[in-house]
Amino acid sequence: MALWKTAYRMLAPGGRRSKLLIFIFHQVLAEPDPLRPYEPDAEQFDWMVQHIARNFSVLPLAEAAARLADGSLPPAAACITFDDGYRNNAELALPILLRHGAVATFFVASSFLGQGRMWNDDLIEAVRQLGSTEVDWHAYGLGAHRLATPADRLQCLETVLPRLKYFPHGERARVARAIARAAGVADESRMMMEADHLARLIAGGMEIGAHTCSHPILSQIGREEARDEIVRGRSELERMTGRPVRLFAYPNGDTRRDLGQRDVDLVRDLGFACAVITDPGFAVAATNPHMLPRFTPWDRTPGRFAMRCAMILAGRL
Ligand SMILES: [Zn+2]
Distance from the CA of 82 to the center of ligand 1, in angstroms? Predict the structure, then answer.
């Protein structure tokens, strides 16, 4: 293990030549879910955080971004972030983070707090519950799909989720909810955090960041709507937590198609200290603080996870 620490420190020295690695997570599952193969379960998340906490200097994102800019980051600096606001962040991830003494930042889309559910989860739960061996979604422009085996169901999701993702914002939510209802999935959900979970995260020393109100892809909506989503998402979190919210994560966050310079300027002008995207890589002192890249190894064994961290710091993804 000390070997990795040495390697990371060589690849990411501190000070003016710093590299900041920001890990991104969405959920930590109680047990593996064949329909969510990219989300770690608690056991996997535990060894990931253990590895990160032992081998990196884990810092709160706000502090790390400020120190990256002024050249005072320690070697092998890293941040841990979560997007969207899933309940399991507070119930499963938080105790693991605390056990390893690691701080993290949670970007929460405010409109889903409480009983809400995101469009992608509508679709995943629909595919889980459908009893038939095939489904025809041509009426939604989403084709027909076999559901006979677990592999079929995963294939269906991997075909439909990327297509539905780029439907116009309101239509995406409507189609996903219609599909969920037709499959017998209840509208109410216990997947997302409630106000009490935010309080628990803050009491544990974690940071809360904004992630808009209803999670639109900003490049697909007008400037005023984008501004309103960003402002409302922040003010609702500030009202619920009683604290200023200075950090932001762009929904989806891929700079090739999910946000533009307009949105980066908006976030900066609205007073956010820094913002994160989902383009993979590491940040350096010259990186735009409102476009900090994030990366998490998708590997599911500790050795490969560590190797992938080293590869990204070496600039070889
Ligand atoms: Zn998100």
Answer: 9
- The answer to whether residues 121 and 115 touch, using CB atoms and an 8 Å cutoff, is no
Start-end of H helices in the chain? 2-11, 42-55, 61-70, 87-88, 94-99, 119-129, 150-165, 169-182, 195-203, 223-241, 261-269, 302-313
- Whole-structure pTM value: 0.96
Pairwise CA distance, residues 275 & 149, whole Å? 41
Nearest to 30 by CA among 38, 40, 15, 20: 40
Question: Contact at 8 Å (CB) between 26 and 86?
Answer: yes
What single string gives the DSSP state of each residue in 192-217? B--HHHHHHHHHTT-EEEE--SS---
For 121-175, write each residue's pLDDT tens digit. 999 999 999 999 999 999 999 999 999 999 999 999 999 999 999 999 999 999 9
Domain count, the chain: 2
User: 279 lies in which domain range?
Assistant: 2-115+192-313
Same domain, 281 and 268: yes
- Split at pLDDT 50, 70, 90, the class of 298 is confident
Distance 292 CA to ligand 1 centre (A): 15
Whichever domain contains 237, its CATH number is 3.20.20.370
Residue 250 within a domain: yes
Which SS3 state, helix, strand or coil, does residue 261 take?
A: helix
Burial class (CB in 10 A: 0-12, 13-18, 19+), 86: buried
Centre of ligand 1 to C-alpha 196, Å, is: 20
What residues have a C-beta under 5 A from ligand 1, the ion?
83-84
What residues form DSSP beta bridges with 78? 21, 58
Percent of the chain exceeding pLDDT 90 equals: 96
Residue 316 has a pLDDT of 87
Q: In whole angstroms, what is the distance from residue 261 CA to residue 100 CA?
A: 38
